[in-house]
Amino acid sequence: MASDSDVTIPSKIKAWVYAERGNPVDVLKLVPDVGVPEIKEDQVLVKAVAAALNPVDFKRALGFFKHTDSLPPIVPGYDVAGVVVKVGDQAKKFKVGDEVYGDIIEKAVDHPKQHGTLAEYTAVEERLLALKPKNLSFVEAASLPLAIETAYEGLERAGFSPGKSILVLGGAGGVGSLVIQLAKEVFASLKPLRFPWPLKLLMKASRGLAFRLANPSSFWVAPAVSVPS
Ligand SMILES: NC(=O)c1ccc[n+]([C@@H]2O[C@H](COP(=O)([O-])OP(=O)(O)OC[C@H]3O[C@@H](n4cnc5c(N)ncnc54)[C@H](OP(=O)(O)O)[C@@H]3O)[C@@H](O)[C@H]2O)c1
């Protein structure tokens, strides 16, 4: 079993950082000498193998919730998949060498961490991580946490259950594609309908319109972007 002492952690790491808010295209820079985040006793240090960006990162950079945000400089990124390289004194769930993934920011817009996941190393409370399933690559695992939490919470809040219908607009997007899969595989409630071409074309033309099927026992999904053009 690997221990903390087996792992060499550099004192300076590479990270994507913005020193002021604005369009990420203009303000996001790769900085070669960011300090490694210190871990608290309930945290672990993760060496990132893959990280993901979500719309919230873009909105955050633009200053959409600057009144509840950390002050720049900010390393963006909520999602990470990587390897545990250091464990806090009170962290018991993981050991050095474990492959983990998660959304490291518990409350998305309420003082999110200044040091996010677009860095070689990131500090995160162990309760926010899970072991990475062996059948997922790091990239696949990093793509999931925030989007699937959003999808799951949406279905829960909507009281979705067997016997109900669901229309998913933006069904090929990050959240939408997961709503469809959760509805089918976890909530066990979905029987996707294959739309006839005229209806597909109508949907393509009228994005946002909801259709209701004549047969109320059908469960159906309208993946707005899966309609071939
Ligand atoms: N990702 C997250 O973790 C997360 C968390 C909380 C909230 N949200 C919010 O959830 C929304 C979706 O996020 P996402 O990550 O799934 O984004 P995404 O991957 O960019 O997906 C957005 C989807 O919406 C479709 N779309 C865009 N404009 C549309 C319109 N006018 N009518 C119908 N469909 C339209 C897009 O289709 P095209 O590609 O064809 O344009 C795409 O399939 C965003 O508002 C985001 O802020 C996301």
From TrEMBL:
<dbReference type="GO" id="GO:0016628">
    <property type="term" value="F:oxidoreductase activity, acting on the CH-CH group of donors, NAD or NADP as acceptor"/>
</dbReference>
<protein>
    <recommendedName>
        <fullName>Enoyl reductase (ER) domain-containing protein</fullName>
    </recommendedName>
</protein>
<dbReference type="InterPro" id="IPR020843">
    <property type="entry name" value="ER"/>
</dbReference>
<dbReference type="InterPro" id="IPR011032">
    <property type="entry name" value="GroES-like_sf"/>
</dbReference>
<dbReference type="GO" id="GO:0008270">
    <property type="term" value="F:zinc ion binding"/>
</dbReference>
<dbReference type="Pfam" id="PF08240">
    <property type="entry name" value="ADH_N"/>
</dbReference>
<keyword id="KW-0560">Oxidoreductase</keyword>
<keyword id="KW-0520">NAD</keyword>
<feature type="domain" description="Enoyl reductase (ER)">
    <location>
        <begin position="23"/>
        <end position="229"/>
    </location>
</feature>
<dbReference type="InterPro" id="IPR013154">
    <property type="entry name" value="ADH-like_N"/>
</dbReference>
<dbReference type="InterPro" id="IPR044626">
    <property type="entry name" value="AOR-like"/>
</dbReference>
<comment type="similarity">
    <text>Belongs to the zinc-containing alcohol dehydrogenase family. Quinone oxidoreductase subfamily.</text>
</comment>
<dbReference type="InterPro" id="IPR002364">
    <property type="entry name" value="Quin_OxRdtase/zeta-crystal_CS"/>
</dbReference>
